[in-house]
C-alpha cells in the first residue's frame, strides 16, 4: 500500500513540474524575441564593420554565399598612398582628391625623404578637421627603405596590407597608388560602380609572355641593398644566373593593382605556403613589384578565376617602351577620358596644370578642397554628412562601360592564360 500511495502522490507533482517548465519555455522564448529586436535596433546605429568581419572570415570557406548578400552594399577601399623625397605636396594633394569618409587611407614617405617632410605630412593629417574627426587616415611613421626595381617595393606593399588587415576589418579592396598617380573619377563614382560587382574580383594586369624579360629578368640574380643598408642605392646584379622555375609559372604585368580583401589575406597568411615561396624567389628578381602578385594569383587554384586582366590605369608609354612612362600632358586628356579608367599616371610636379584641369572638368573640385560628394556638408566640404550618400556622375557612366567590357571578356577558359 505504501508504494502505491507514493506513486499517486508524485503524479500531480510531475504534471505540475511539466506545466511549469512549459510556461518558462514559452516565457523565455518570448523574451528572446524581444531581446533580439532590442539588440538589432541598438546595433543599427553603428557602422557595418561587424558584417564585414563575418564576410572576411567566411570568404575563404564559401566566397559565393558571402558575396550574394553584399553585392549591392556600398564597399570600402583601403588606399595605400606612398612617395619619396620631394613628394610631400603631391602626396597630400592625391590624398585630398581621393578622400572619402567611408574609405581607409595609409600614407608612407620612404626613408629617403627628409624627416621634416614626413613630420609635415603627419602634421597636416592631424590638423585637418575632417580627417581628425573621421579618423580614417594612418601614416607609417617608421619609414621603410624602398629601392626602385627592388623587392623592397613588394615588402612595402605587403607591409601596408598587413597594417590594414590588423587595424580595420571593414574594407573590401586594397588599392596602391604613388604620389605620381591621380584619379579621373570621383570616389562616389568609384564606390557606386564597385557596389555592383563581386567582392572577390582582383584587377591586376598579367601575362605569361615574358618576351625580353625572360632573359633580362627571369634568369639574372639581383640584390636589393634596401634589405640591409640604411642608405639608398640601386639594385646590384650578380654574375651568377639561374634557370627559369619549373615548380610554378612566371607572370608579369603592372605594379598598380586593385586587390580583394580575400586575396590580400591569402598573400599575408599564405595558408598553402605559395605566397611565401614566391616572395623568397622574387627577393633576387629585378622589378619584382611587376611580377610577384601576378605570379601568386595565377598559380593559385583558389584565386586564379578572380583575376581581371587590367590595372584600371591610363599610362602613357613611349614606343618602344622605356624604363619609365612618359609624363602626362594636356594632350593625353582626351585619350584618358576615352579609355574610361579611374586612374592615370605619371604626373610630374611641373605639370600641375593637367591635374587642375582634371579637378575642374572631371571631378568638380575647387580651391584645393576635397572632391565633392554626397557626404559633403557646407562650403568646400567643411563638414561630414552621410558617408553612404552617393552622388555618382559622368565618371560612373564611364566606369560602367569599362566594367561591362572587362567582365564580358572574362570567362572560365581565359583566366591567366595569356
From TrEMBL:
Keywords: Glycoprotein, Glycosyltransferase, Membrane, Transferase. It is found in: Membrane. It is a single-pass type II membrane protein. InterPro entries: GLCAT14A/B/C (IPR044610), Glyco_trans_14 (IPR003406). GO terms for molecular function: glucuronosyltransferase activity. GO terms for cellular component: membrane. This is Beta-glucuronosyltransferase GlcAT14A-like. It comes from Punica granatum (Pomegranate).
Amino acid at each position: 500500500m505504501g508504494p502505491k500511495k507514493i506513486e499517486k502522490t508524485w503524479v500531480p507533482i510531475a504534471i505540475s513540474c511539466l506545466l511549469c517548465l512549459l510556461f518558462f519555455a514559452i516565457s523565455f522564448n518570448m523574451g528572446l524575441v524581444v531581446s533580439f529586436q532590442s539588440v538589432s535596433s541598438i546595433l543599427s546605429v553603428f557602422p557595418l564593420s561587424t558584417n564585414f568581419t563575418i564576410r572576411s572570415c567566411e570568404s575563404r570557406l564559401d566566397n559565393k554565399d558571402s558575396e550574394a548578400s553584399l553585392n549591392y552594399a556600398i564597399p570600402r577601399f583601403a588606399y595605400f598612398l606612398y612617395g619619396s623625397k620631394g613628394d610631400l605636396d603631391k602626396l597630400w594633394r592625391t590624398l585630398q582628391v581621393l578622400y572619402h569618409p567611408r574609405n581607409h587611407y595609409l600614407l608612407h614617405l620612404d626613408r629617403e625623404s627628409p624627416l621634416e617632410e614626413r613630420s609635415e605630412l603627419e602634421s597636416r593629417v592631424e590638423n585637418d578637421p575632417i580627417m581628425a574627426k573621421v579618423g580614417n587616415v594612418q601614416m607609417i611613421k617608421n619609414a621603410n627603405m624602398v629601392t626602385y626595381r627592388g623587392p623592397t617595393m613588394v615588402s612595402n606593399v605587403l607591409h601596408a596590407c598587413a597594417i590594414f588587415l590588423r587595424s580595420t576589418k571593414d574594407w573590401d579592396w586594397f588599392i596602391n597608388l604613388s604620389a605620381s598617380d591621380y584619379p579621373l573619377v570621383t570616389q562616389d563614382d568609384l564606390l557606386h560602380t564597385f557596389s555592383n560587382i563581386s567582392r572577390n574580383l582582383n584587377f591586376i594586369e598579367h601575362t605569361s609572355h615574358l618576351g625580353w624579360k625572360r632573359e633580362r629578368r627571369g634568369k639574372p640574380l639581383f640584390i636589393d641593398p634596401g634589405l640591409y643598408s640604411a642608405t639608398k642605392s640601386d639594385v646590384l646584379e650578380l654574375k651568377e644566373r639561374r634557370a627559369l622555375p619549373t615548380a610554378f609559372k612566371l607572370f608579369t604585368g603592372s605594379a598598380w593593382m586593385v586587390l580583394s580583401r580575400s586575396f590580400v589575406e591569402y598573400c599575408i597568411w599564405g595558408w598553402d605556403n605559395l605566397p611565401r615561396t614566391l616572395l623568397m624567389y622574387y627577393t633576387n628578381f629585378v622589378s619584382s613589384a611587376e611580377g610577384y602578385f601576378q605570379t601568386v594569383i595565377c598559380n593559385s587554384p583558389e584565386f586564379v578565376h578572380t583575376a581581371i586582366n587590367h590595372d584600371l590605369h591610363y599610362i602613357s608609354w613611349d614606343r618602344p617602351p622605356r624604363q619609365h612612362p612618359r609624363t602626362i600632358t594636356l594632350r593625353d586628356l582626351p585619350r584618358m577620358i576615352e579609355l574610361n579608367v579611374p586612374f592615370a599616371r605619371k604626373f610630374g610636379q611641373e605639370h600641375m596644370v593637367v591635374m587642375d584641369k582634371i579637378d575642374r572638368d572631371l571631378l568638380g573640385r575647387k580651391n584645393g578642397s576635397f572632391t565633392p560628394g554626397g557626404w559633403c556638408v557646407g562650403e568646400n566640404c567643411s563638414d561630414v554628412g552621410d558617408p553612404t550618400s552617393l552622388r555618382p556622375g559622368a565618371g560612373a557612366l564611364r566606369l560602367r562601360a569599362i566594367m561591362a567590357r572587362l567582365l564580358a571578356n572574362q570567362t572560365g577558359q581565359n583566366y591567366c592564360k595569356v
